[in-house]
């Protein structure tokens, strides 16, 4: 699902691997988000964190099944949004 307004674009996914969100995938997500032109955010459990920060991502405490929303502030970052969503969809390559 893609929601668009004049400022942000969001897509929803969930944590699929048994280990949940741990340091390796959080670091990889932060690396992907760091290549964006504008801010990228992750939302889970009513918390919004900077997707370029491994530590911030880990504070989400995202276990298997946690619903995650990825938010970008610039449509030019759709490729980064797609990369992050795909990474979640493949279970961080650990499934």
Can you give a write-up of this model?
The chain is an alpha+beta fold and 95 residues long. It has a single domain, classed as 2-Layer Sandwich (Histidine-containing Protein, Chain: A). It is built from three helices and five strands. Strands 1-2-5-3-4 form a five-stranded antiparallel β-sheet, covered by helices on one side. Strand 3 and strand 4 form a beta hairpin. The longest helix is centred in the first third of the chain and has 12 residues. The two termini are 23 Å apart. The mean pLDDT is 93.
Strand order of the largest sheet: 1-2-5-3-4
> Into which percentage range does the β-strand content fall?
25-35%
Number of helices: 3
Q: SSE order in H/E notation?
A: EEHEEHEH
Compact description:
The chain is an alpha+beta fold.
Topology:
Layout: E1 2-4, E2 9-14, H1 23-34, E3 40-44, E4 47-50, H2 54-58, E5 67-72, H3 78-89
Keyword list:
globular, 95 residues, Histidine-containing Protein, Chain: A, alpha+beta
């Amino acid at each position: 699902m893609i929601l668009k307004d004049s400022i942000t674009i969001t897509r929803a996914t969930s944590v699929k691997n048994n280990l949940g969100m741990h340091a390796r995938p959080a670091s990889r997500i932060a690396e992907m988000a760091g290549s964006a032109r504008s801010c990228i955010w992750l939302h889970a459990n009513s918390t919004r964190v900077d997707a370029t920060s491994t530590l911030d991502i880990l504070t989400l405490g995202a276990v298997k099944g946690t619903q995650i929303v990825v938010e970008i502030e610039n449509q030019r970052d759709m490729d980064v949004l797609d990369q992050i969503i795909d990474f979640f969809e493949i279970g961080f390559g650990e499934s």
